[in-house]
Amino acid sequence: MISHEETFYVLSGRLRLTIGGETAELGVGDAAVAPAGSALAVANTTDQPAHMWVTTRVGLSAELADGSTITPPWTH
Predict the structure, then answer these.
(1) Residue 58 to residues 6, 18, 55, 61: CA-CA distances in angstroms?
(2) Alpha-carbon gap, residue 60 to 3, rounded angstroms
(3) If you ran DSSP here, which 8-state letter would residue 73 be given?
């Protein structure tokens, strides 16, 4: 579960993005928004590399499935 909204934009490849239980396959140029408080998962289901741009605001933290919390370094 994420504390702040996150926006995802696929730069290359294909990714499967699940936000709040809804799953979509995203390709180059596709974007998605995960609202604050939502659970999310990202997977590359192909054998090709994929890249995406992720934007959020300072202070984002995420609770992992095991109950631990992370604060990615890019959110400081």
Answers:
(1) 11, 23, 10, 9
(2) 6
(3) G
Tens digits of per-residue pLDDT, 21-49?
Answer: 999 999 999 999 999 999 999 999 999 99
Amino acid at 59: G
Would you place residue 12 in the very low, low, confident or very high pLDDT band (cuts 50, 70, 90)? Answer: very high
Nearest-angstrom CA–CA distance, 36 and 29: 23
Torsion over CA: 66, 5, 7, 38 (sign): positive
DSSP string, 8-61: EEEEES-EEEEETTEEEEE-TT-EEEE-TT--EEEE--SSS--EEEEEE-TT--
The Cα 62–Cα 68 span in angstroms is 8
